[in-house]
Each structure stands twice: as structure tokens, then as C-alpha cells.
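lol ok so funny story. i was supposed to be doing the assay writeup but got distracted and ended up predicting the structure for this chain instead. priorities right. anyway since i did it might as well share w the group, maybe its usefull for someone
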Amino acid sequence: MAAKITKIGYTNDKISARGGLPLFLRYVQQIGFYQLVTRFLFFLNPFNGKGLKMIPFFTQMLAFCMNGTNMAISSFDQSKKDESYAAFLECHNDQLASSHQIKRYFKRLSIVNSLIFNKILHELFIWRLLIEKPAIIELGIDTMVLDNDTANKKEGNTYTYKHVNGFQPLHISWGRFLIDVLFREGSAHSNHGTDYPDRIGAICKLIRKRYRKDVPIIICADSGFADQKAYHVFEQELNIHYITTSKHYTALKEFTNDHEYNDKQAIKNGKTIWLFDEIGNKLGSWNKFRRCIITRLHCDGKGQYVMGVDSLESVIYTNIGNSPIADQRLMAAGGSEYFKAQTIVEKIHKRGADELIHRSIKELATKEQLPFKSFGMNRAYYFLMVFTHFIFEAYKQDVTADVLPITSYPNTFRRKLIDFAVKIVSHSRNIIMNVNKTVFDSINITELWKLCQSPPRIQFT
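and the output, tada:
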């Protein structure tokens, strides 16, 4: 019979259940992230030498976001008493920030607007772009509602299209990376003001200047971004392609209801079958015809044929094939498949996968509620989450790809590669992090530690 526990005691050993944090933080240090933020936010460091410094603040905030155990700002007071946590962050206990110090630093960050934060995000984007070297760049754009309905006294916490009070940042994504964010109040809809073309324009200019002048760029978006003014900017000024869905306007709906589709023009995904056809269309306020592809659900996922009003229709607008400069670039890059109507429809259907990035960032944050009353402080907090998410996605590619799929979400990642027990000891002038033999073997932690020491560095100018 196994021995029974008869007594509870304590130890002064530095033991923690967040053994994966030191690896992540070493990766953050080695890629040069701290030098990057210091370059753009240098004016935030206290000139008198007192108070919380920038690098300790960002280190502790990145650890806070990746840990995800307790996302209340007050949890910093508890962490400040934990010697093992200080050892993880490779600092002394008195260098750990209290919740009041964190709040004061966010108050300083509140003066920083989205454009400056985006400069940091853009450098991260160029870093990954130069590593992956894509021949064709596909960007997604969407908004994401942060439900703060229970805290309506927060500045900018206004009514959203999802019938809750909250915030609605505008996101531009490239694969699994958020590369541009405009933090906005909840009532700011998808095509609010000139936010949409302005942010796309900024990203395109960045790509042309820092990556390649002639690389084809394709924007995929939903009906909230179907706008002739934006189309004109893309066609005449930026020379890029777009693929967007559109609302079902009355005149077009009458046409599609009576339209006879060719069974040979079909897209199959399992048992689901979509019929499609291509037309030229000019909405009432438009000054030109544009390429339009209409689709109808012919057979649902259960293999049942869909008839009449139950058939789901989508209307897709694109300038692929009608923009000479952009078309030439796309063909030169080997993108002949993009000119086919079937490929365009498939790209729109895959937008659901692009939106999974919203699930990922919400899972990383653990909750949608932002912690402060000030709009500027919440904007800074959200960008800290976005930075952490970007580095998290890069970390999966550069360090942990052989242990866990890069498609893993934050909760899965935390369970496997953050939440394991370690003990930190000093021996022969070395500080050693010991892990359980099972963990040591299952995740090959020595190889992960080695990869954290020499990742590809951010090459900012």
C-alpha cells in the first residue's frame, strides 16, 4: 500500500508551475523586440531615473499576457511576492512591478496613438515577411468586437453592430499575424470614414518600400468593406487587387433569383456544392462596371439539395483581370490561377479560416473586457496583447513547431508548453532550471532552449 501524506510543510526552493515562460522571454530578448520598442517609445523612459523602466515593463507585461492565469492588473501585487517569478524574469524581487506601477505606466502610454504602435507592428511584419519571402501577398481585413457591455462607463465603450457596448478595432491580417490595428470605439463600423483605404494604403506603401516594389497584393474582405471609393483607391492609386463580397441589393437580387446556373461551374467541398457564374455589374451609384461573380448553394453539407429561397447566395466583386498594372504583376509572380472565377470564390470561402485569428487573440487575452476607464490606456493595453500575439505566432514557427502544430491556439499551447513545473537552483556559478524527466523527454526542452538563443532577429531600419 502506498504511503499516505501525513503532514504539510513549505520550502524556500524556487518552484513554479509556469516553466515555459523563461523560454518565451528569452526568445523575445534574442529577436531584439526590446530594442524595437525602445526605438519608437524612447520618450516614455523616466528622465530622473526613478519609476518603472520600459524594458522591465514590457518584459512583465509579455509574461503576464502569455501566462494567462490571472488577467487582473491586481495580480501583479501577488507576483511581486513570488521569488520564483522574479527568477523567471531574471531580475530581483524589488524590480517586479506592483499593480500601481503598471497602471501608472499605462497612463503614460495613453498618449501614444495607434499610428506609433503600428510602427512597431509594421517592423514585426517586415521581419516575418523577409523570412518567408512570399511571391504573392494576401491580406485580410476585418473588425472585431470586444464585448465590454458590463462596463459602459469606459471611454469609447459604445454600441456595436452585435448589440452590445464595446470596442471595435480594425484589423489587417497576413496569415496568422495581425499586421496593422486601428483601435476604435464600438460604434465605428467596418467602412468608418477613410480608415479602411488609409490603413490598406499604409501597409501597401510599407511593403513596396521595405520588401518588393512589384509584389502582387490581394485584399480579401467581407461586404462591410464593399465601397466604390476604396475600390477606386486600390485600382487607380495602389495598383492592388481586391476580392470582396457585397450586400444583396434589390436590383441584383432580382437578377440572381431568376439566373440559371451552369452545373459545370461548381465548387465542391465534401458534400457541399456551390454553383457560380460570372457577370459584369454596375451598381446605381458606380461610375463603371466591375467584375462580379455570383454564387448559389446547390447542395448543403448533409448532401441535401437546396432550392429557391433557401439557397444561400453571395455576390463577389473583384478587379482581378481588369487592372492592367496589378494583373501584370500577378501573372509575373505565377498567379495565373487567381484569374479563374473558381479560385476567387474559393478565396472568399476561406475567409472563415482567416477570422480564426480573432478567436486566437481573444483566447490569449482570456476575456474581452479591457481593464481601464481611459480609452488611451485601453488602446495601449490592447496593442500589448497584439504584440504578444504576434510574437507568440512567430515563436510557434521558430521554436516549437516540432513539438506542437503552429495552428495550436493559446490554451492548448499554455497547457503543453507554459504550464509545467520547474525548480530553479544555483550550482557552480550556474543558474539551472530543472524540470521533471517526463517533461524533459516529451517536449525536448534542451532543443527548445537552444532555439530560443538564436532565432532570426528583427532587422529594423
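The mean pLDDT is 87. The longest strand covers residues 272-281.
back to the writeup now i swear
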